[in-house]
Design a protein that fits this description.
mainly alpha
Amino acid sequence: MYLVVVLVTMFAAPVASIALDLRFGDPLVALVGKWFVFWTVGVRLALAGGRQIMQPGFTANEIFGIADRKAWLIVRELGLANLAVAVVALASLVKPAFVAPAAVIGAIFYGGAGVQHFVAGGRSQKETVALASDLFAFVALAGYAVWALSV
C-alpha cells in the first residue's frame, strides 16, 4: 500500500492534474508548481503526517528501522510538522500566493530527506522508494521555486 500511495501522490496524480490543466493555457512550469505543491507537499505530507501521528511505529520501524518505542515521540512530532506544512500546501489551491512558499518548504524537506536516505546506506525497499520519490519531488519543487522566485 505504501508504494501505491507514493506513486499516486508523487507521480501519477500531479502529472494527470497538469495534463488536465494544460488546456487553460497556463505556463507548464506554473502548473508543475501548482500541482506538485498540492499533491506531493499537500496530500502526501497530510497522509504521512496523519499516519505518523496515529501509527508512529510504521515510520520508526518500516522506514527508519528503529524498533525502540522511544522514537515514537519524535515520529509524532515529525507528523505534526508534516501536517502543518500540508495544510498550507492544500490551501494553495484557493490561495495561489501559497504555492511558491510551499514549494520552497517542500523542496528543502524532500531534498534533505532524500540526501539523508542516500547517506544512510543499507536501505530497505521502502527506504529506497522514499529516497527516489523524495529526490524526484525535490527536483520538481526546486525547479518551480527557482522559476517562481525569478519572475
